[in-house]
């Protein structure tokens, strides 16, 4: 019931957007430049159409500027882009996007007018970026779309499991001679060295789940040699390497059954992954009130209530799980101590609960964040506010140097949890939308110090805006707070089921 109602509501809302787009596109269209970030040269222009608060772009026009091929399926009202080797299909008046064989979603519909398909640029860039052989970023403030030609020539690995092995397909941006590719194996790892290979260590290489290959690590071994390391769950009996132009295809034949030590290791691994301890972190506390509502409601009090409801809800629905809170009263706890507490107690999930505030008082609804470099100004500002509580702390040296760059490097350790954190964030986002009838701002990423040290999937929920009259009224209502807790718990329960079944 809740779900259906939510969907039709969004549909309705987007119709309005669509209508606005149809009516005013000629009035509020403007061009933005597409710029090569390395050279500063302008590659081309795309026309932006404003609808609501969002900038839309014609998908075909963007594809042309980025030199991506596309096809329009007029009957199905779809447009397909080819990015790298992946076909990405968008459907008119639909938020779902088919990426390869997986379905993905953006927060807004694809709009359709006169045979053209329009997508909100910010979300479009976010969705296609992982599949491109170059990097793109959009800066709405500067009205520029940046293209960064990466120097890496090894850009991605796709894995397909077979009954008795795996096929690893590695995509390069140029062809390498087979004599420059060396493979070796030891202790459950399979290595491929590329002489003349360039790789970016932070690149997200594994794009699909494999039962046989547990993880992939890209490393630049030296100026000349790049290495891809594959952690294999079965022992390798036979291997074959083929080079076809810019693709390296490696077929690994493995034993059908798992060896006893591998089985034992897997079992241990599975136990480690079990979500048996959940850490709830009510934001702020003590001398730090957090955001303050129009009528004087403190963020620290609201989020503490939500946290208590959530603890109770989780304990009754997941009786075998230990639920701990980083603070049990109105106490000030430094940010780094919150994640240290989570790590020390063997936490498997970390949820920081907050309430938003913004000078734009009309802003309302929830936002769910996971840790990562902020992609929008708004996300950056929310993180800045939440991070500013370190001014209440006695020593701030732990946070020094957490600039964007050091963050990206330091966040390498976090990469292992990024996908999980994002999954958890989107499950909770959807539940809050449905259960609380709250219009979300989607899942976003930003650099929250409080999430930085958590060695587990971690998210931060901005439950609603204390600066909005309506939202503040909701946050004063115990029933609403308990519904928020129920929604968050629903997301956690779903995540737990999915996560534990996936291994
Ligand atoms: Zn807060």
Word description of this protein:
It contains twelve helices and 26 strands. It has 503 residues and is of the alpha+beta class. The protein has three domains: 2-148, Copper Amine Oxidase, Chain A, domain 1 (2-Layer Sandwich); 154-270, Immunoglobulin-like; 274-502, Zn-dependent exopeptidases (Aminopeptidase, 3-Layer(aba) Sandwich). The strands form five sheets. A seven-stranded mixed β-sheet has the order 9-10-3-2-1-12-11. Strands 22-21-23-26-24-25 form a six-stranded mixed β-sheet, sandwiched between helices. α5 (299-317) crosses α12 (478-502) and α9 (415-436) crosses α12. The longest helix is centred in the C-terminal third of the chain and has 25 residues, at 478-502. Mean pLDDT is 81; it is low at 1-27 and 400-414.
Shape: globular
Count of discrete alpha- or pi-helical segments spanning 4 or more residues: 12
Can you say what the CATH homologous superfamily of the largest domain is?
Answer: Zn-dependent exopeptidases
Average pLDDT confidence is: 81
Strand-pairing-aware structural class: alpha+beta
Distance between the termini: 31 Å
What do we call the CATH topology of the largest domain? Aminopeptidase
The strand count comes to: 26
What is the CATH class of the largest domain? Answer: Alpha Beta
Radius of gyration: 24 Å
Give the total of domains.
3
Descriptive key words:
503 residues, alpha+beta, Copper Amine Oxidase, Chain A, domain 1, Immunoglobulin-like, Aminopeptidase, 3 domains, 6-stranded mixed beta sheet, 26 strands, globular, disordered N terminus, binds zinc ion
